[in-house]
Amino acid sequence: MAIQSNRLSTEEYVVNFSDVHPPFDHPEGAIIESNRCLNCYDAPCTKSCPTSIDVPLFIKQIASGNIKGSAKTIFTSNIMGGGCSKVCPVEKLCEGVCVYNLLEEEPISIAKLQRYSTEKAITEKWKLFERKPSTGKKVAVVGAGPAGLACAHALSREGVDVTIFEKDNKGGGLMTYGVAAYKVSPEFCQDEVDYITSIGGIDIQYNKELGKDISMTELQLDYDAVFLGIGVGIARELAIPGESLSGVVDAISFIYDLRTNDYSRIQVGDKVAVIGMGMTAIDAATQSKRLGAKEVTMIYRRTENEKPCTDVELALARLDGCSFIWLASPKEIVGENGKVTKLICSKMKLGEPDASGRRSPVDTGETISIDVDMVIKAAGQIPFEDLVNETKLENKTGKISLDINRETNLKGVFAGGDCVNGGKEVVDAVQAGKDGAVAILNYILGNT
Amino acid sequence: MANLNSNFLGIKSPNPFWLASAPPTDKKINVLRAFEAGWGGVVWKTLGSQVKNVSSRYSAMSYGGRRAAGFNNIELISDRPLEINLKEIVECLKEFPDRAMIVSLMADNDRKSWHDMVKRTQDTGAHGIELNFGCPHGMVERGMGASVGQDPQIAKMVVEWVMEVAQIPVITKLTPNVHSVVPAGRAVIEAGTNALSLINTIQSVTGIDLDTLVPNPNVGGQSVFGGYCGPAVKPIALKFLTTLAQDDYTNKVPISGIGGITTWKDAVEFMLLGASNVQVCTAAMISGFKIITDLCDGMNNWMDDKGYATLDDFVGLSVPKITRWEELDINFHIVANINQDKCIHCGLCYIACEDTSHQSIAIEKGNPYNTYTIKEEECVGCNLCKIVCPVNDCITMEEHRKGDEYLNWTEFQKRGLPLNDH
Questions:
Q1: CA A380 to CA A238: how far, in whole Å?
Q2: pLDDT tens, B317-366?
Q3: Does the domain made of A19-123 have the CATH classification 1.10.443.10?
Q4: Among A107, A305, B164, B230, which one is least packed by beta carbons within 10 Å?
């Protein structure tokens, strides 16, 4: 047993990391599917989209051959509609409520249709938005993730000049660094960022980190308003013995490395345990398998009924050959010569419902031991609490607090996305960015 | 098993489905394939005056992703040599003696030409002749086709010429490019035609190529009006058919129904409105001859279900059910009902009623699903909600009479009853 890189051939990596939800091969597919849409009134799909995309409209625009109009309908509500068509858990959003489900029929392939229009727009660089005349105002956005980009685009459209400060060397945030590679490629993420900024008036300054390269005070002085879209990103510790052994990694770093290096350079064990059952845990488990791990076991302290990921995601892990241990909570990581060899878990049972409404796990006192050479921790992410405190932002355990105008306790400083909500979907961050832009426009233009 | 045997003017066929005079019946190879597939008969593509066809010839109108909801053509009558056609007709008759063989004719507009065509056709042993007075393009400009059918006097004269020499049954095919088919129908019956058939195609432009701006079909950068057919024309054909079936003079002869027949249900509808048999073309052109299997099977099963042993048992049964508007019962009133167990909350009924009808559906907002209910007192019973509902029998129209007695408009006015107050 050993952790090693370069387990597969180039061809195998290509196959394993190719598009998990392929696009329509032919326009005919999109036409047939779009004509199947009933064009509901006050459509459940639109209501279930955090950005309220007018789904029936964009689908009928595909049916009528108005692809440009379709792309504009999507991007007007969600400027990251291209990426969202690939990463949104649509089974619990738009597609999950499609009325066809009530007829026990396949829901409309909304994501696939959305991808059809948006990918065309991005590939062919359609210019769908014009900036309004300059307002003479400038806004600083911290973080070029979904919230920051959505906020910047919305502000730019209204004639505001935006400078985005990004601590990494690429834009896109979690879309670029935190999502499974078989959902979005790095090239797509770059194209999407370029497409968003092609409207003009958005300057992204890379490798500029808040608290290190720039200070909040400077931003407040130099700009008419500030939007914080700094996300979350610190992996939650398990707080158990053995966590510092070699071979114990957190899912966020694991996926970050995978998204920023050649697949052949990513190390993975023979027998991998993944702790957690959220979307990131699934991404880590499936990608470990796709990198060539022989056995991947997902460990979750509750049962399948309480899992945070969707059925579709779980099925993906199952199809990739991952196995699952339910009702098991990590107790200790054991090693030899500084390297992981075993994961000891407490066996749990379900007790009373907790604050989330799900039945909480209770330790039975029994333990199980699993032979492993790698442990990936995906037990959630926590906000940048130190950074938030240093900048004197009011917060709740690191999550930035906002008033009813979406402003923080600091004058002219607004925030949105994961750094406020603690970590939700990309599409939620986009909406938060839009909302932030509306609040900022009210603030800087005084039209409340 | 019901009996589908058809007897049209003594012309027998194992089922009431003939292929209409058109490209599918223009040569032996097609006709034999049709007979092998099970078609009851064919009307051989029109013979007569010599022509040359162009390329392209067809165009279609798509709707909701469905190709060829309507279809049109600018093809003329047969452009093959007459001798070859006549020889092949003889050969087909020999191979399938149990199938109906009708030959469509359109001669030059003189007595001698018509006499000559009729005689040569009869010499093949064909069972009947259909006179093409309906073709709406190409031949019209030469005084033939629809220009004959559109003028009852000319139509009558040509039929008289034909009947002078005809020894087999003669069917006259009428054009729908008129405000009423009854005058031409009466005129040709007066002249002695043994039967009528309708409709021929309707003049049309199916669409325009938005890149070249040339309407379809494109013939070297130009187009012409084509003859429209296919599913889109069925309702128009049924209306024309009904006017013949209801006229005391034209309903004395059998009618062969044509116009957009695609399924056995369409065929049953034509026969219920007075057609003794039906002719099909576009559906076969779009899907091939195999459609005959379900045309026969579906009609047969329906007849069994309804207890009709022969075709004559149901031909014309719906004719008296179409009346004049003044005869309708004003006291008849229906109100929509939404079955909440079947409703999928698409809201299509609501928005149709709210935007374009009588604001008779109440909405109770929900997330993500709204609840829709009928405001019975507002509902006029227009059927729109039922039409747009994607779920079968989710919306039903329930009878809530306004009064017990039958009351028509004439009587309503006579009594000075009040109009609506909204």
A1: 10
A2: 999 999 999 999 999 999 999 999 999 999 999 999 999 999 999 999 99
A3: no
A4: A305
> Rounded to whole angstroms, what are the CA distances from B156 to B112, B153, B262, B356?
16, 5, 32, 47
- Indicate yes or no: CB of A44 within 8 angstroms of CB of B390: no
B92 is catalytic: no
Domain boundaries, chain A: 19-123, 138-233+383-445, 235-380
pLDDT in tens, A117-150: 999 999 999 999 999 999 999 999 999 999 999 9
What does R_g of chain B's alpha carbons equal in angstroms?
Answer: 24
Can you tell me whether residue A344 is helix, strand or coil? strand
Q: Residue B264 in contact with residue B283, Cβ under 8 Å?
A: no
| Contact between residue A302 and residue A348 where contact means Cβ atoms under 8 Å apart | yes
Domains A138-233+383-445 and A235-380 agree in fold:
yes
Contact partners, residue A231, CB within 8 Å, separation at least 6: A143, A145, A147, A173, A174, A417, A418, A419, A429
- Report the residue of chain A nearest B353, measured CA to CA: A41
Spans of chain A below 50 pLDDT: 448
Amino acid at A341: T
Angle between helices A27-36 and A55-63 (to 10 degrees): 130
Strand partners of residue A349: A362
ipTM above 0.90 for this complex = yes
A197 against B49, higher pLDDT: A197
Whole-Å CA distances, A62 to A113, B32, B61, B66, B189: 8, 43, 18, 15, 53
b/e code A121-146 from CB counts within 10 Å (16+ = b)? bbeeebebbebeeeeebbbbbbbbbb
Cis peptide before A264, with omega less than 30 degrees from 0? no
Separation between Cα atoms, residue B225 and residue B208, nearest integer Å: 12
Closest-CA distance, B287 to chain A, in angstroms, reads 19
Chain A within 8 Å of B64 (Cβ-Cβ)?
Answer: yes
A345 touches chain B (CB under 8 A): no
Please tell me if residue A11 touches chain B, with a CB cutoff of 8 Å.
no
pLDDT at B138 over 80: no
Pick the CATH number of A235-380 from 3.20.20.140, 3.50.50.60, 3.20.20.70, 3.40.50.620: 3.50.50.60
pLDDT at B147: 83
Cβ pair B370, B345 in contact under 8 A: yes
Question: How many Å apart are CA A131 and CA A134, to the nearest integer?
Answer: 8
Contacts of B363 in chain A (CB under 8 A): 42
Task: Inform me whether the pLDDT recorded for B260 exceeds 90.
Answer: yes
Q: Residue B96: what residue type?
A: F
Omega into B217 within 30° of 0, i.e. cis?
A: yes
- Record: contact B65-A63, CB cut-off 8 A: yes
> Looking at this protein, which amino acid is placed at residue B79?
D
Comparing CA positions, the residue from B165, B118, B135 lying closest to residue B73 is B135
- Chain A (54-93) residues lying within 8 Å, Cβ to Cβ, of chain B: 63
- For residue B154, the SS3 value is helix
Cβ distance A35 to B64 less than 8 Å, yes or no, reads yes
Q: Cα(B209)–Cα(B176) distance, rounded to whole angstroms?
A: 27
CB crowding A199-230: b at 16 or more within 10 Å, else e: bebbebeeebebbeebebeebbeebbbbbbbb
In angstroms, the CA B47 to CA B256 distance is 20
Q: What is the mean predicted confidence (pLDDT) over B207-231? A: 97
Give the domain A138-233+383-445 fold: FAD/NAD(P)-binding domain (3.50.50)
CA angle A248, A350, A311 (to 5 degrees): 65
Which residues in chain A (21-50) have CB-CB distances under 8 A to chain B?
31-32, 34-35, 38-45, 47-48
